[in-house]
User: Fold these one by one.
Assistant:
Number 1:
Amino acid sequence: VKFVESGGGLVQPGGSLRLSCAASGFTFSSFAMSWYRQAPEKERELVATITGASASTNYADSMKGRFTISRDNAKNTVYLQMNSLKPEDTAVYYCHTKLGFHSYWGQGTQVTVSS
């Protein structure tokens, strides 16, 4: 299993970013995918999850209405569209999946929201 994340960077408050996570090594369309984030000196927290074939979504309360998770099963890629970004959204963002008892993580992409 391998993930390649991209799309992070520096953005001003109120701005937008779109993260991508290209997956390989498993049947992508069959498994739920999630985005997590970890801010400095804080625990890693769930941002959003999208199921496999049905693409049902679920969000942490603080991200609802601002973030949108989506997937393209033809490209084996999951996305996180982030709008109305706030300084408190600054964190390393990771994509994740769980296959049976095993969790798999991307390398993370840094998002910094600052003026």
Number 2:
Amino acid sequence: VQLQAFGGGLVQPGGSLRLSCTASESITSMNVMGWYRQAPGKAREWVANVISGGSIAYADSVKGRFTISGDNAKNTMTLQMNNLKPEDTAVYYCNVVRWTPRLSSWGQGTQVTVSS
């Protein structure tokens, strides 16, 4: 499955952005849908995910500010980011995982820059 992420940009601290990730085929069979990010000079880190069955989890650094959601009918997942901070600056990647048969796909990344 091919993923395309978009919605990044430049925003001031305290602002909001909404990232979207569209899949080339149905995501209903996916077990995990998630977002990761990679800041310059740092390793890629997990941000949030939704596990089949509805369980949602967030990294402590974004909890209370970011909201992940999915729309199976549109083969899309989103990441609503509010109260953005300079430390949120990174390239954001979407990811889907299916456990059986095993599959893991990544989007191409979208840049988010939080700066005044």
